[in-house]
Amino acid sequence: MKLEIKIPEVGESVQEALLAQWYKKDGEKVRKDEVLFVIETDKVTLEIAAEEDGVLHIEVPEGETIAVGAVVGFLDTEGAVEPQRSPGTKPSREPERKQAEPAEPEPGAAAAKSSPSRREAEPEPEVPSQETDVAPAVRRLAAEKGVDLSRVEGTGPAGRVTKGDVLLFVEGRAGEMQTEGAEPARPTAKREPEERRTDADETSKRPATSDRKESSPGEERVSRQPMSRIRLRIAEHLLEARRNTAMLTTFNEIDMSRVLQIRARYKESFKRKYGIGLGLMSFFVKASVQALQDYPEVNAFIEGKDIVTHHYYHVGVAVGAERGLVVPVIRHADQLSFAEIEEAIAEFVRKISENRLDLSDLEGGTFTISNGGVYGSLLSTPILNSPQSGILGMHKIEDRPVVVDGQIVARPMMYVALSYDHRIIDGREAVGFLKRIKECVEDPERMLFAI
């Protein structure tokens, strides 16, 4: 029985996806729930797993843009993995594979053959751990160059070996053969692996040479790579926000002393009771909800000539991911406790790291919070997440001298910024909104009584 493998639907607005990488080989036996390939859309990156045991047959190579619902391969469930097959047929094949194993150590044989050599390598203890998730294109390149993939350090997702890793290994090996002494160009190969990987991804069929290592020290180098679909969508989205809104930013600063004291005091007991740490973001989500309730204009959108005011509070939290910025949404944040907010954020981070974030996790936000402070940003002007009318920017906490009761004292201060659409929000509301957040964070007890 042949089971079709299709590009899944990830949302009504997504019509096509990039097949970024196959994690399994053509003709390889796979088990149910093993990851087969990863796709990129203009919103999310997803890993697609096998629905049944079987033998994989690839119809569409990696790097192709495919319509949602299109068939990219199929699973032959008649050739399912060995433990699930009748014992009468497998034993006769197994000795044949073992008889062919002695030919594996020959480098030429590994380079000349593709499918047989992979099967012969299976009994070796080190090879499966290094090569299990290597893409077919990477295997072909390694075969052409006579490279043992078990010796190549992977720098791709989850430590997978990429084409650039193979070429970098080849160049390093060539340098060792040319000279045994120190070589000025060798540190360059370590300093700039990303540029080499980029060039390799674009020209997988171009043979690697040592010209780049032998180039003169003063040579000006560039690298070029196509923008991912997520990065393209981010760029379009930001330009759209700049073109279609009258964006303005107002600033304030917050004394974080009380929040830091509360976190230090209840850190251990909070963790024991809820199994999650008490972070800063839950305080700002709660404070934002209070401010949105007081200033509903910030929680409204412009649609044509209408103002659509939302009476629910879906707060997006910007998270920097490997492939670009994503903004998962905490729904009905006004109904959640501090622990539930922290748990929701932690779950989003896990989904992003595992490529399990759904399109539904990103939709429906009415307000966004972005924390540039985790990267060391002292001050910034965040860009609106259209069609939303407001976004709050948090920044790093820094001890600064401030005047308290007529005395100059050092306090942990944070600059905050509110970017807003001036078409719907006046300066008075914007300043009042940010002041309300300041009051709630500096005196967290206000949030308990909504005063």
Largest beta sheet, briefly?
7 strands, mixed
> How many strand units?
19
**Rg from alpha-carbon coordinates:** 27 Å
Instruction: State the CATH topology of the largest domain.
Output: Chloramphenicol Acetyltransferase
In terms of structural class, how would the helical and strand content be classed? alpha+beta
Tell me the β content.
15-25%
CATH superfamily descriptor of the largest domain: Chloramphenicol acetyltransferase-like domain
Separation, N- and C-terminal Cα atoms: 65 Å
Shape estimate: elongated
- What is the residue-mean pLDDT, rounded to a whole number? 78
Name of the CATH first level of the largest domain: Alpha Beta
CATH architecture of the largest domain: 2-Layer Sandwich
What can you see in these coordinates?
The protein is of the alpha+beta class. It has three domains: 2-131, Beta Barrel (OB fold (Dihydrolipoamide Acetyltransferase, E2P)); 136-214, no CATH class; 230-449, Chloramphenicol acetyltransferase-like domain (Chloramphenicol Acetyltransferase, 2-Layer Sandwich), CATH 3.30.559. Helix content is 35%, strand content 22%. The chain has 15 helices and 19 strands. It has helices at 90-99, 107-112, 115-120, 126-131, 136-145, 163-178, 186-191, 193-202, 211-214, 229-244, 257-274, 281-294, 338-353, 427-442, 445-449, and strands at 2-6, 16-22, 29-30, 35-40, 45-49, 54-58, 65-67, 71-76, 247-255, 300-303, 306-309, 315-317, 319-321, 324-326, 329-330, 367-371, 390-394, 397-404, 407-421. The longest helix is centred in the middle third of the chain and has 18 residues, at 257-274. It is elongated. The chain starts with a strand and ends with a helix. Residues 83-131 and 177-213 have low confidence and may be disordered.
